[in-house]
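Subject: mismatched residue count in predicted assembly?

I count 1446 residues in my input, but I want to confirm that the predicted structure covers every chain. Input:
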Amino acid sequence: MMFQNETSYTVKEKIDESQIAILPIGAVEAHGPHLPLGTDNYLAERLAEKVAARTGALVLPTLPYGQVWSLKNFPGSINITNESLIRFLFDMGISLYEQGFRLFVMLNGHLGNAVALKEAARQLYNKFPDFRVLYLFYPGVKQVTEEVRETPTAHTTYFHACEIETSYMQYLAEEFVDMSKAISDIPHIPPSADITPIPWEMFTSSAVLGDATLATKEKGEKIIKIAIKNMVQLIKEMKGE
Amino acid sequence: MMFQNETSYTVKEKIDESQIAILPIGAVEAHGPHLPLGTDNYLAERLAEKVAARTGALVLPTLPYGQVWSLKNFPGSINITNESLIRFLFDMGISLYEQGFRLFVMLNGHLGNAVALKEAARQLYNKFPDFRVLYLFYPGVKQVTEEVRETPTAHTTYFHACEIETSYMQYLAEEFVDMSKAISDIPHIPPSADITPIPWEMFTSSAVLGDATLATKEKGEKIIKIAIKNMVQLIKEMKGE
Amino acid sequence: MMFQNETSYTVKEKIDESQIAILPIGAVEAHGPHLPLGTDNYLAERLAEKVAARTGALVLPTLPYGQVWSLKNFPGSINITNESLIRFLFDMGISLYEQGFRLFVMLNGHLGNAVALKEAARQLYNKFPDFRVLYLFYPGVKQVTEEVRETPTAHTTYFHACEIETSYMQYLAEEFVDMSKAISDIPHIPPSADITPIPWEMFTSSAVLGDATLATKEKGEKIIKIAIKNMVQLIKEMKGE
Amino acid sequence: MMFQNETSYTVKEKIDESQIAILPIGAVEAHGPHLPLGTDNYLAERLAEKVAARTGALVLPTLPYGQVWSLKNFPGSINITNESLIRFLFDMGISLYEQGFRLFVMLNGHLGNAVALKEAARQLYNKFPDFRVLYLFYPGVKQVTEEVRETPTAHTTYFHACEIETSYMQYLAEEFVDMSKAISDIPHIPPSADITPIPWEMFTSSAVLGDATLATKEKGEKIIKIAIKNMVQLIKEMKGE
Amino acid sequence: MMFQNETSYTVKEKIDESQIAILPIGAVEAHGPHLPLGTDNYLAERLAEKVAARTGALVLPTLPYGQVWSLKNFPGSINITNESLIRFLFDMGISLYEQGFRLFVMLNGHLGNAVALKEAARQLYNKFPDFRVLYLFYPGVKQVTEEVRETPTAHTTYFHACEIETSYMQYLAEEFVDMSKAISDIPHIPPSADITPIPWEMFTSSAVLGDATLATKEKGEKIIKIAIKNMVQLIKEMKGE
Amino acid sequence: MMFQNETSYTVKEKIDESQIAILPIGAVEAHGPHLPLGTDNYLAERLAEKVAARTGALVLPTLPYGQVWSLKNFPGSINITNESLIRFLFDMGISLYEQGFRLFVMLNGHLGNAVALKEAARQLYNKFPDFRVLYLFYPGVKQVTEEVRETPTAHTTYFHACEIETSYMQYLAEEFVDMSKAISDIPHIPPSADITPIPWEMFTSSAVLGDATLATKEKGEKIIKIAIKNMVQLIKEMKGE
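Triage response: the counts match. Full output below for your records.
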């Protein structure tokens, strides 16, 4: 159910019944020649719909801006600082709690948001100990991803506009993918990228971290289905079901 | 053109050519029994598309949360404080400027955002004197609104979920309006509402400020067309055309 | 009664009896060749005295600095940012509440302060729901002003060092007005001034928005008497009288 | 010269000629039964006038609120936090510098402001290395005070509403002193007051720290004349005269 | 070389020669019955000395407080919020840069600091693009740790007071370890700990995450030697050697 | 007792028994050719140990960074802004209170920290009225210092790397003093240093304010013993013993 399509006359009962709000949050960020700037928004949004369908959660409008320090110098990227993002999410959480929600699921499509989401969640926990705030970024897909991928990952944590993320998009938002433009660009990410600030233009000009040409809808489906299953399960556990 | 559907390979040229970014910004807020919580988001978004079509502007993804202090205690409202909203928009503006935009149009669908938008615009002007930031909220429609409306306005500045705003929705986002639920509820807004903080639950239980049953698509069209014409003209003037 | 002339031995009883504090707040800002930089301070202060006389309020010392972004580049202007002003007023409000006041009237002589005053008032309301904070800027004078003025207004919202404000000064603080220097300077304020930050030096070199030579004490008296009447009434209503 | 009585047409030349702005800053604070709440404001203001007369400085309107943590629980006290006060003064300093002043004298009538004044001065120095900001609180009067006083001081640093401060008021603002109400109240200030936060109600109910009945205009004159001489000299040295 | 043991007469030359500052940063935090609260401080400090010896870096005094949200309710833990820690480190970085350092190594002994360190590093990079700030937490020890450990890890990211960390302490700061008190306590960490704020008292009463009785100096040595080798190499690469 | 050498299993009982935490806080700052940059840290730390021995207090790890605006341009100085320092100490205080401490003694070795310590103490008092926070900087040594010193003080408040502070170091941390490098350098501190920001490089190149060659361990001992006696007494009084 899309929260913003409800009216104030109908929504109260639904909040009380569901108690779960899902916020899709992504970013506007360079994703190579074949994926749109809004890739992370589309992923978060489509995932949220599927997760909501199985959990009875209410889907909030997508917050389409996030923290993109690493890629902020690429064409099209829009960066929100962690500090601003944390405050924004903290305010949202207060309203959601006051509205009667007790489970606030931040369904994240952009790894760069992880720090802000976790911090906002903790600040909300400090304020409302009975308010559970979740930050979800493709939980529990490590194994299936290893099985599915044909090329090694470019980095232990990052994946971006590559075989994997492109597959996600093919499965979840195919209409925004132009596979004819997909490229393979496996950069050498210097080890120092894990221990010092390194804007990505230092090691890639495409923002693609892998071989996007190998992406398929089937690969995406395999991983995403696991991700959804895990998210649904985590939410249900949190709700005490 | 929807900014987030571009890729980083195609967007740079379009930014340089257009130099204009439009951000639709609304709110999630109670709008009576016949209009959805996301009314201000839909209005801002649809207006942005129309204005962009005539100005060559790039439309950013909608920021669907705003400052709703007055209605925050109504079911479904989500409130962002002015301080958080200002910071968020300030960060966005910095990125847009660095990306090459020179005209940042905040197309506002929610009066409650006005203060934050103006403040963010000023802070960006202080930082980048050659960056024009606009905040637009139905400019120049006073006269046509007076002509169109059949009932007097409930307040000199506010209008909300009433004959006028409902007409806007009928014209711009008809699919989200349920006229069968429309009501007439003309509250007595105490004069003190202009001079002291008064949450709206003090004078209305419906959040409707007028007779929504009188709303028509035609009324909406008349006003919105003027608003669009004015916005287009203001943007062109700003761009020096 | 001037609050700061009381002693701590006498003031407690008066606070408890009155419960109303009036803070005159103005600005130091360019007001043309015939009005002093402190015009808004003198207006706020004199009004406060008159309003206090009729409401039993205690008059706090004038806060003589305000937000003057628009005119900050004119000689003599001193600008306080909204953020600083809000914090300052918020602190004051806390003290006033703790001292026993339940009605805090910010009597404003400078339109540029309006945003900060309203925001401070809301933050205080959030903190102390039984604390009423008022922000008053010539309430309810629209009609009488239209009747009195001989020249059309230069702008729908702004008036500055013009026929009207100069008349106010003639009535309230004649000794600071030098009518021999009064000028008529009706600038073309571009419509964009309502939708984007435009420092006033872009459209005026005098900071006078109208024909100050037409100002008279009588005009001032007519409007100010209405303003005072309205302020007194609003305060009494708030106090539940 | 009173800055706020100038107009924007006359002030520029005077700023360029003088380059010195004096801000009287005090507080609203309990001062016993014989001195008004605004004592520190009157002292700062009268001193500023005298110092300006001898240095050609322009006198800004008094900032009549300050940091009064220690006495905030006494009737009539109004407390501004250090953080808010620092920001406010920092903003003021920026405007004064941009207006052409190169010497900003914060003439302080209230010891509690000392921390905020020094911090604001340093922050302004960091921003504008050629901007001299002074914070003056009766400089160089230690010796003469020892000579003049008939009773020992209640504390090495604090003096308040006592023989000394009352004498200042008699000399500078006699009309606000009611010697018939003056009392002698020499509290035992615990040594811990220097090493831990101790609100003054812990050791005094009058807020008088000494024997105010011994105050005389002559005593005040002797000390104040030295203070003024020192302030004038410091300002002239700073100006390079 | 211990930075704080130098004098201002000798240090300038050493800064210019080395250009590398190492800040050991840890935390005061519960570490079970056999390890001291200052475990992370001792580890960071001892590592820093060894790394400095091989890189010519200057070792700053240990910052012995860090972000310990997860364990803050355990006896002895002291928590600094991320926001405060970031500001503190940002200030330090500014001074180090102004002193002539061009490589600022934050050698971290406490995983909970990771977010603050990275954020501070980015903010410093934004301010000084030629200033390299490193955040190091046992880099590149994953493989050797897998080889060394006899028991599986309790969590993919966390390790705490367990076989591994206790081995570190035995190798680096043996005098603070009391193996007679070491326990094995392998908690069930709920999967939700990765996706929602969960204070550790929810799943452990000892704060030990593993079998500390299996710790040996030899295990510690094997891992720590790799960690040091990697840190030295990363620093040298950064320095362009 | 060194707090960080305790374990979480042993510390709770000791906290409850003692209720007193001592935080040594100093700075990294230029102290002439004969004293190390960490002088204020060593002094604070050694004093803390002695005071703890007599009061049963628990000694926290030294916070070795402080506010050194005045000397920040001297080689080796590291400056933390007041604002950052206050936040850091405020966070620490919250944890200490929650851990069960009721007396938080900030034992200060660096005068420049005084403002931040006092402000943090007040903010903690506002939050926890039953939490006593002390800031101690050689209390009550004025008289003995006058007796001991052979040369007049260079300034009424400051002393730095001089006869006195060097004597402190000889008594408390002899191993870090190199008397063969001690110099006599009595600068002319301009009177304006008390009333306007003046970095110390304006009046000294050595950062020594006096004749360090006259320092002796005996002088140090005499003063420090008094300081310790006074600190012990103040703490005991605070604890109600």
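Chain F is about 40% helix and 10% strand. Marking this ticket as 'not a bug'.
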